[in-house]
Amino acid sequence: NVTLVEGLVTIGSYGFRECSSLVSIKIPTSVTEISYACFYNCTSLKTINIPSGVTKLSGSCFEDCTSLNGVTIPSKVTSIEYRCFENCSSWSGTLSLPANLTSIGYSAFAGCVSLTGTLTLPSKITSIGYSAFQNCSGFTGLTFNCQISSIAYSTFENCSSIGSAVTLPASITSIGDSAFSGCKKMPRINFKTETAPKVGTN
Q1: pLDDT at residue 21 in the model
Q2: Cα dihedral sign for 157, 119, 71, 34?
Q3: Are 84 and 64 contacting, i.e. CB atoms less than 8 angstroms apart?
Q4: CA-to-CA distance for 142 and 160, rounded, in angstroms?
Q5: Whole-angstrom Cα distance, residue 174 to residue 145?
């Protein structure tokens, strides 16, 4: 277990990368930045507190932290970058995304198979990267409160437990290849536009 000292502002890139014996870490409230791949492949890490002053979760920050569970994303976070939580396969329960969130990077939550309930995308989101929620097989519903213009390829691929109809926002103009491939329980997708968006294959 590790406790970082108060007054620390930034945890640098690769700070604890592949520390396979790290089980928990207490981060002081003074920290405002958790940098790229900081906790990448910390396979034993079970608990972590993200301070309220953090506004961005950097790329691959918690990627392959396969034991991590019970993460709370602070309300000030506006960006969750690529592969941030990819393959955090033990993270269970519902995913609560902050209201101020504007962007989700590619593969940010891919492989988070234990997340459940309805995935609700907050109103300020303007972009979601490809494969962002790929293989999130535990989600049972999907709600768009945002007005994004496109859904990238494989964004919700193999979200195989979504069992209710999904209504896309009127702002959608394109849907990429395999965006909803493998969503075998989803009965239908509803469009709010008179003109159907451009749709890729599969």
Answers
A1: 96
A2: positive
A3: no
A4: 12
A5: 17
Give the pLDDT of residue 51: 97
Residue given tokens 């939580």 in the structure block: 85
Which residues are within 8 A (CB) of 169 and not within 5 positions of it... i.e. 6 or more apart? 144, 146, 147, 148, 192
93-94/115-121 β-pairing: parallel
**Distance between CA atoms of residues 39 and 52, nearest Å:** 18
- Tell me the backbone φ, ψ of residue 56, rounded to 5 degrees: -140, 135
Q: What are phi and psi of 102, to 5 degrees?
A: -115, -25
Q: State both tokens at 186.
A: 């989803």
Q: Looking at residues 41-52, what average pLDDT do you find?
A: 96
Residue 121, CA distances (Å) to 3, 14, 163 in order: 33, 29, 17
- Tell me: pLDDT of 56 over 90: yes
| Whole-model pTM over 0.85 | yes
Separation of alpha carbons 68 and 97, rounded Å: 17
